[in-house]
């Protein structure tokens, strides 16, 4: 009897392993179906900013419910989806819009050491009266029945509705319409603006609590100052981050500390991130400088925050877009501002790369931080170049002269002491 039971259990185990092996064989491919570079350029940033700026003013000043439409360029949607796939799952993605539908491809590399390859997903998004529905889903070589994909998507959307971080934003979206030329989002703005408006945060509650902790530290200790250096701002928050990193992931603590420092330096109300936050200081905040310049401190910390919560690709694109806008608007294209951007980008990347690197940076800040060690040599870098002056000296962003100057900046940034 015991032998029969053992044989039965062995047979069942072998069948399970066989089914699992067959499943892995069918869903794992050796090559990605979608293989494309993640390239976010200043042109993408410019188009998206113009699109959202077109809606932002009206929404912020309208206290009533308002229906609206947000039309996006398919190329920008493609870049955004591919960027998100790279950022969250180290994969690649592509979307192609058609009339009332879109085809989606996602390739995700396997992280396991035993199994190598890619999981390739194909699906068709069908326009409905609300959010799009998935059809014809294929996972590797396995087709997923439409009823199953619909069941999973329905429950996922329900989870988003119930999630405290995403419920406000998902409720705003009413419908997604698709054509070959555009992807249009119909939304319902609930109203509210200004000081008494309604805000929702993309941060989880635990992340909001962490950011508030560092923000409170800065506003409580520095109310009597008129001027601060960036190193004086980073020192206390990174020292606190080192304390909390004993029981928490150091990149997580550093990320929150950098974001809190960004809102403090830029003079932004924390309720934009933490809707329930009510402890805003009525005392004028000090001016924060880096190596004697307020603009350097702002460039550095914004780039560090974008990198900490996104990555260097997005940070570099936004930094370059800012300089091109300055060239157009009158303040001019400044290579020393780009140097501050790149330094902040590397700081944010190092602060969140891994637990060992994050704790290493914490100790460097506590023991050695100084403005001269945060900012590369910049005095000889051209600044405030008008559009005409930039074209005369550098031509365009693809010229040898421009690339030579950027190479010089990268070499100086790489020599900063907080970088390996």
Report on the structure:
The protein has 420 residues and is of the alpha+beta class. The chain folds into 2 domains: 42-189, no CATH class; 205-414, no CATH class. The chain has helices at 2-27, 42-60, 74-89, 146-162, 167-172, 205-221, 230-244, 250-266, 294-309, 312-329, 335-352, 355-368, 371-374, 387-394, 400-414; strands spanning 28-29, 66-72, 92-98, 101-109, 118-126, 133-139, 142-144, 173-178, 183-189, 227-229, 287-289. The strands form 3 sheets. Strands 1, 3, 4, 5, 6 and 7 form a 6-stranded antiparallel beta sheet that branches. Strand 8 (173-178) and strand 9 form a beta hairpin. Helix 2 packs across helix 10 (312-329), helix 6 crosses helix 7 (230-244) and helix 9 runs antiparallel to helix 10 (312-329). The longest helix is centred in the N-terminal third of the chain and has 26 residues, at 2-27. The chain is globular, with a radius of gyration of 25 Å. The protein starts with a helix and ends in a 6-residue tail after the last helix. Residues 192-198 have low confidence and may be disordered.
Number of domains: 2
User: Element order, helices and strands?
Assistant: HEHEHEEEEEHHEEHEHHEHHHHHHH
Calculate the mean pLDDT score and round it: 80
Structural class: alpha+beta
**Based on CA inertia axes, which overall geometry fits?**
globular
Number of strands: 11
Euclidean distance between termini CA atoms = 65 Å
Q: How many distinct helices?
A: 15
Share in helix: 40-55%
Beta percentage is 15-25%
Question: Rg from C-alpha positions?
Answer: 25 Å
Tell me about the largest β-sheet. Answer: 6 strands, antiparallel
Poorly predicted regions are 192-198
